[in-house]
Design goal:
The protein has 331 residues and is of the alpha+beta class. It folds into three domains: 76 residues, Roll (Structural Genomics Hypothetical 15.5 Kd Protein In mrcA-pckA Intergenic Region, Chain A); 121 residues, Pseudouridine synthase; 119 residues, Pseudouridine synthase. The chain is 21% helix and 30% strand. It has eight helices and 19 strands. Strands 7, 8, 10, 11, 12, 13, 16, 17, 18 and 19 form a ten-stranded mixed beta sheet that branches. Strand 18 and strand 19 form a beta hairpin. Helix 1 crosses helix 2. It is elongated. The chain starts with a strand and ends with a helix.
Length: 331
C-alpha cells in the first residue's frame, strides 16, 4: 500500500506519498494524480513547474520521471490565490447549491466568463461574490470552475464547480457525454421528420472565421438529436411558419444547436449570426410574430434541462427551467 498523508501548512496543504512495489515504473504525474484525489495531472504538472514537488528534499520538475519503490514524494499545494476577476454583486437565480457545486438559471444577456469586450459583469464575477469562502480554489485560484458555457444570449441552466475535485469529476462527465443537456428552441419552418439526428463536424467557417460551420473536412464531430414539440402558426399545420423544437446534445461544440439547425434549413428564430435576415427580423412569417422576433433581440434558445451525477454523493440530479417570458411570448 502507498502511504499518503496530508497536513495543513501555513501556505496551503502538504501531501506525502510513498511509492510501493506495484507502482514501480509509473510516470510521476500519473502516480501522484492516482494517489492525490484532489489534484488533476494538469494541476500536478503546474505544481512541478512551480517547484512544489520534492523527493529526498530535491525539487522534481519532470512529470515523465519514472517512480521507484521506496521513494517518498512531497507535494506542497499553495493556498489558493484571490481570483483575478473581481467579485460583483449581481442577482442570480439559484436552482441548487452545496459545498461542491452550484446550478444557476442564467438569464439571456449575461456573459458567462470575462473576455475581451466583456471584462466584468459576468456570471463568474457574480459567482465569486455569491459563493465567497465556499470556493476552495480551481487550479490554485479562488474562482468557480466553469465546466460548460452558454452563449450570452442563450438562457437556461448552467453548472459551476466550487473545488478542484468537483471540477475534475464534472469535466470527465462532459468529456464522455454522460451529462443530460436538453434545450428548447423556436426554429423557422417545421422539419419534415418530426424527430431525427443531425450529424456533421463543426469548425471555424472558412468564409468567416468569426462563425462556426458544418465542414466537409476537419472540425470536430458533433451530434444533435431533435424532436418537434409543436408547429407554430395560424391555421392548418401545413401553414405553420415556425416550430417549438427540443434539442438534446450528444456532443457540445461551440454554437452546436444554432449551427446544426441552420444546416438543415431551420435556423433558430432571432439568431443574428446563423439565421440570416429571416432569423433576425421574422421576414416571411406572421406579421405579429415577426414584430416579436424583431423585439426579442436574441436567439430563441433555452437550456431547459440539465442532469448529471453529483461528484461527491454519486446521486443523479436533474433540473428543469421553464421558458423565460420573452420566449413564452413567441408561443
Amino acid at each position: 500500500m502507498n502511504k499518503l498523508s496530508m497536513t495543513g501548512h501555513i501556505n496551503g496543504e502538504r501531501h506525502v506519498v510513498a511509492v510501493s512495489e506495484e507502482c514501480a515504473g509509473d510516470r510521476l504525474d500519473k502516480f501522484l494524480g492516482d494517489h492525490i484525489e484532489s489534484l488533476s495531472r494538469t494541476r500536478i504538472k503546474t505544481l512541478m513547474e512551480e517547484g512544489c514537488v520534492t523527493c529526498a528534499e530535491k525539487t522534481v520538475n519532470d512529470p515523465s520521471r519514472r517512480v521507484k519503490p521506496g521513494q517518498v514524494y512531497e507535494v506542497l499545494v499553495p493556498a489558493a490565490r484571490p481570483a483575478r476577476p473581481v467579485a460583483q454583486a449581481i442577482p442570480l437565480e439559484i436552482c441548487y447549491e452545496d459545498a461542491d457545486l452550484i446550478v444557476i438559471d442564467k438569464p439571456a444577456g449575461l456573459v458567462v466568463h470575462p473576455a475581451a469586450g466583456n471584462p466584468d459583469r459576468t456570471l463568474v464575477n457574480a459567482l465569486i461574490a455569491h459563493c465567497g469562502d465556499s470556493l476552495s480554489g480551481i487550479g490554485g485560484e479562488i474562482r468557480p470552475g466553469i465546466v460548460h458555457r452558454l452563449d450570452k444570449d442563450t438562457s437556461g441552466l448552467i453548472i459551476a464547480a466550487k473545488n478542484d475535485v468537483a471540477h475534475r469529476n464534472l469535466a470527465e462527465q462532459f468529456a464522455v457525454h454522460s451529462i443530460d443537456r436538453v434545450y428548447q428552441a423556436v426554429a423557422w419552418g417545421v422539419p419534415q421528420k418530426s424527430s431525427g439526428v443531425i450529424e456533421g463536424n463543426i469548425g471555424r467557417s472558412p468564409k468567416n472565421r468569426k462563425k462556426m460551420a458544418v465542414l466537409a473536412r476537419g472540425g470536430k464531430p458533433a451530434e444533435t438529436h431533435y424532436r418537434v414539440i409543436r408547429p407554430l402558426g395560424r391555421g392548418p399545420e401545413t401553414l405553420a411558419f415556425a416550430a417549438l423544437i427540443e434539442c438534446r446534445l450528444k456532443t457540445g461544440r461551440t454554437h452546436q444547436i444554432r449551427v446544426h439547425m441552420a444546416h438543415i434549413g431551420h435556423p433558430i428564430v432571432g439568431d443574428p449570426v446563423y439565421g440570416g435576415r429571416r432569423g433576425r427580423t421574422g421576414h416571411g412569417g406572421d406579421e405579429n410574430f415577426g414584430a416579436l422576433v424583431a423585439a426579442l433581440g436574441r436567439q430563441a434558445l433555452h437550456a431547459y434541462r440539465l442532469g448529471f451525477v453529483h461528484p461527491a454523493s454519486g446521486e443523479q440530479l436533474t433540473f428543469e427551467s421553464k421558458l423565460p417570458a420573452d420566449l413564452q411570448a413567441l408561443l
